[in-house]
Design brief:
Layout: H1 3-10, H2 16-41, H3 45-54, H4 56-64, H5 69-87, H6 95-114, H7 120-129, H8 137-156, H9 158-166, H10 168-173, H11 178-200, H12 205-219, H13 223-248, H14 252-270, H15 276-291
Helix pairs in contact: 2-8, 2-11, 2-12, 2-13, 3-6, 3-11, 3-12, 4-5, 4-6, 5-6, 5-11, 7-11, 8-11, 11-12, 12-13, 12-14, 13-14
Length: 292
């Protein structure tokens, strides 16, 4: 299918779900790109994966009650994040152990809940891997509003979040509420994951949060530039992924992730300052100097 045919399908009223899927994918990728910058900066990939598990029971409950998946997932993720924050205050257990206990338990609870729904297998597959045809109009609006609030929140707290990410002790000495800022970031990560689940699925959503931001990190040392590039890479992966999945009849979520990964590999190899090609060229130059 040519890009022209794809645009024609997007404008076809009988294929309205395709336009909604692309719109949600683009909005989700932009939001995840912005939030993912802080996740990559702080080395929070494990927490991002854990949050993706934590939202699952909320999604399952919302599905059974025919409510908003975004709202249900957000509530479940926030509750679990608060439990982790509270139990982590007991220094007998490290934070990663508490995260492993609660977030995996939340995912297990979600599986038990969704098993009570009619058509259990199909419903579970949609949750885990996304569904391009299952996005209602109300969720498009919810994703747009939630995404706008998240981006506004990140911009508003940008200085504080960066300070905590770079030097927690200095942040405490400066009087910043480090615990509160950690909790706010957890909530932001939770909501970013929830708004992305319907298009890309619960299992693959972490890639949308991490890969575009990691790609941007390969290309720049400036945080502001990184925060601008990451949403662009995410949007590119969403656009090309939806196009390829529709043209070749491939799973949407998996295709978006593979496109994002391909862009990362290109950046990893060709990055002007930190890429493999640059490193090999520099090594070859040093060897030539030694031989000379």
């Amino acid at each position: 299918m040519s890009p022209v045919d794809f645009v024609a399908d997007l404008l076809n009223p009988d294929l309205a779900f395709l336009g909604k899927a692309l719109l949600v994918a683009l909005m989700s990728s932009v939001v995840c790109g912005v939030i993912g910058t802080h996740v990559v900066l702080r080395g929070m990939a494990f927490i991002g994966e854990a949050v993706a598990h934590a939202v699952f029971p909320g999604l399952a409950v919302a599905f059974l009650l025919q409510g908003s998946l975004v709202l249900g997932g957000a509530v479940a993720g926030v509750v679990t994040a608060v439990l982790v924050a509270v139990f982590s205050q007991n220094r007998r257990l490290k934070e990663d152990s508490v995260i492993g206990i609660f977030f995996v338990a939340a995912f297990a609870l979600g599986i038990v809940i969704i098993s009570r729904a009619p058509g259990y297998a199909g419903s579970l597959q949609d949750f885990l891997f996304g569904s391009i045809t299952g996005i209602p109009d109300r969720d498009v609006v919810t994703v747009a509003v939630a995404g706008a609030l998240l981006v506004a929140g990140v911009l508003l707290l940008h200085k504080e979040l960066v300070t905590v990410s770079l030097d927690r002790e200095m942040a405490r000495a400066s009087g910043l509420p480090v615990f509160v800022l950690d909790l706010v970031l957890y909530v932001m990560v939770t909501i970013a994951i929830v708004v992305s689940v319907q298009t890309i699925g619960n299992i693959l959503v972490l890639a949308l949060l991490i890969t575009p931001a990691a790609t941007a990190r390969m290309l720049t040392d400036r945080l502001g530039v990184m925060m601008a590039l990451a949403p662009c890479f995410g949007a590119l992966a969403a656009l090309v992924g939806v196009y390829l999945s529709w043209s070749l009849d491939l799973p949407t979520g998996g295709t978006i992730v593979l496109v994002a990964t391909a862009v990362f590999l290109l950046a990893w190899f060709f990055a002007p300052r930190h890429g493999l090609a640059r490193a090999l060229q520099h090594r070859a130059g040093r060897r030539a100097e030694v031989l000379a």
